[in-house]
Amino acid sequence: MKASSPHATLPRAGLVLLVLLTVFWGFNWPVMKFTLAEIPLWSFRAVCIAGGATGLFAIAAASRFPLGVPKGQWPRLLLIAAFNITGWNLCSAYGVSLLPSGRAAIIAYTMPLWSVLLSAWLLGEPMTRRRIFGVMLGTLGILVLIGGELGGLRAAPLGAMFMLGAALSWALGTVCMKRYPLAMPTTVMTAWLMLIGGVPVFIGAAAFDPGSFHAYGTRANFGVVYNVLVCFVFCYWAWFKIVEMVPVGVSALSTMMIPVVGVFSGLWVLGEVPNSNDVAALLLVAAALATVLIAPAAAAPEDMA
């Protein structure tokens, strides 16, 4: 993984990855909700992480990438894995089990706000006018979504706290990855992060969910397969690839469409119709993305920092 990137906006390949990532991760919020209704939380996360790591190691081996960890990289791997894998997966799973999937997604993707602030503080990334405007638009979109969910959030404060913890954990992991870059191919790095970050989850599954592996329903089995192959193999790899391409302020803000997809897909799964708040939030978040992902033809250097 490269230490830094000169790009201030995503190149075309990154935009393709972002679109796929947004759709797949957004749709996963209702998928996680109905899967966790059948499968115990620790077991579900353990299977997903183990399956994702196995798949990524297999892809790396088939691609003839060196699978070893370079000298001096272990402390960085442990730090990033603790936030991006262990913290995020446990907090988000507990949060979505206590909240409707749409509400959980909304809180989880306050992550861009924390990422932008942390990157300015810890990495010295500039708070350009375009980035500040993007944060303002995206935050307003999230607030519009939250406006219709306040009653539900007050009814499940523990779930909201878990999701906020997930957002902060993901933001810290992303900033750490930029501050302490890993000299490894993205596929190998992602596989090792999952394996290392999954160790506490594997232990927890053995301790809290013994004997929980048995036959489940079609929807739960679909949820496991979808998470392993799509979310943990492809989406994690795509996210770390995007982080490699651009500054944290851009990569973090690029995820702001995911909770909108999460809300709309949750409504679709439940057979409901999007309301005016959902549509307004969609437009605001789309505008926020445009400010940071689409470069003007003749931008001033300070706006492209």
State the gist of this model.
With 305 residues, the protein is an all-alpha fold. It has 13 helices and no strands.
Structure report:
This protein is mostly helical and 305 residues long. The protein has one domain. It has 13 helices and no strands. α2 packs across α3 (74-98) and α4 packs parallel to α8. The longest helix is centred in the C-terminal third of the chain and has 28 residues, at 218-245. The chain is globular, with a radius of gyration of 19 Å. 50% of the residues are buried.
> How does the helix and strand content classify structurally?
mainly alpha
- Global shape: globular
Strand composition percent: under 5%
Oligomeric nature of the chains: single chain
Number of domains: 1
The N- to C-terminal Cα distance equals 21 Å
Helix-strand pattern, N to C? HHHHHHHHHHHHH
Topology diagram in text:
Layout: H1 12-36, H2 41-62, H3 74-98, H4 101-108, H5 111-123, H6 129-147, H7 150-155, H8 157-179, H9 186-208, H10 218-245, H11 248-253, H12 258-270, H13 276-293
List keywords for this structure.
305 residues, mainly alpha, 13 helices, 0% strand
